[in-house]
Amino acid sequence: MKKLLAVILALCVVFSMTSAVAFADGDLVECEDTTLTFCCSAAETTCWAQMAKVFADYVNERTTGNFEVEIYAMDQLTNGSQTEGIQAVCDGSIDLSAHSNLIYSNFDQRLNVVSLPFIFDNTDEVDEVLDGAGREALAPIVESMGLHLMGIAENGFRHVTNNQRPIESLADMKGLVIRVAGAQVLKDEYEAWGTNYTTANWSEVYTGLQTGTYEAQENPLPTADASSISDVQDYVTYWTGVYDCIFFTMNQELYDSFSPEMQALIDEAGAYAANNQRQLEREGDQEVLDKWEKGGMKVSTLSDEAVQEFKDAAAGVPEKFVQTCVGLGFDQAEVEQLVSIFTED
Question: Which pLDDT tens digit goes with each residue over 286-304?
Answer without folding.
Answer: 999 999 999 999 999 999 9
